[in-house]
Amino acid sequence: MNYKILVLSLIFLASCAKVPLEHMSLSSMTPTEGPPESIGYYSLGCLKGGVSLPTHGEGFQVMRLSRGRFWGHPNLIKYLKESSIKVAKKTGRQILIGDLGHAKGTPSLTGHNSHQSGLDVDIWFKTIEKKRVLDLAEREKIWAPSFLSKPDEVDNTKWSKIHWEILKILVSNDEVQRIFINPAIKKKLCLEQKSKFSLKELSKIRPWYRHDDHFHVRLRCPKDSPNCTSQSEPKLDDGCGSELDWWFTEEGQEKIEPWDHYKNFKTKRENLPKECKEIL
User: Is the pTM higher than 0.85?
Assistant: First the structure.
C-alpha cells in the first residue's frame, strides 16, 4: 500500500466532507514497522504494527474514512472479518463499521476516550443490504441514528431480530472482553432475550452511557502484547439486577457527562506509557 497516496486521499476526502482530519502528517497516519503490539490501556495506550481494515469486504463496509480511524491490532481485524461473514450469512445484511483507532493508536482529538490500543471498535446498529456498496461521499453523510424512542426505551420500529442475531455473533467470540450497549438495550435484553445468551455472554454485555447507536466491542489483550493492560474481567452474572437498575435512577442519569472532544487531549498524550512516546 502506498501510504502517501492514502494520506493525501484522506485529506482530500476530509476537505470535501468539511470534517476535521485529526492528524494530517504522514508519520502519524502510518503504522510502525515490525511485529504488532498493543501497549498500555484502552484509554491510555498506543499500537505498534497496526493493520488497516479494508474499506469494505464480505459483509462489512467502513464508515467515516476521512477520520483515518480504521487501524487495529491484527486480532481485531481478523475478528471483524470473521464476524461480518457470519452476520451476512445469518441475516443477509452488511454491518457498518465506525471507528477502530489511528495507525499508531493513542488519544483521538475528537470523539473517543478509548480506542487507543487497537482493540476497540464501534459497529453501528444501522445495517444495509448485502449487495449495496456505499460510495465515499455516502460514507461521510450517512449517520448512525439513535435506536431509542425515549432515554429509557428502545425504539421497536428500528430494533429488530437482526440486532439480537448480530449481538449474539459478536459476543460469542472468546477474544471479546466486553461489549458496551445503552442501558435501555441491556434492559430489553434482560426482559426479552436472556434465555438466548449464555451466562458468560450476558456477563460481557455491559451497559454504558450513550451507546444508543452502536455496539462498542472490546477485545482482550493479545498474547503478543506483554505491555498491554487489560480491563478486569466482568463479573460472571447476567447483569440484569440492581446494577442495571442503577442506570435509570436520578444518580445514574446525573453521571452522564456532556461531550468535550478536546478535553485533556494534551494531558492524555503526555501521560502515555514511555513505549508510546517513542513511536509518536
Answer: yes
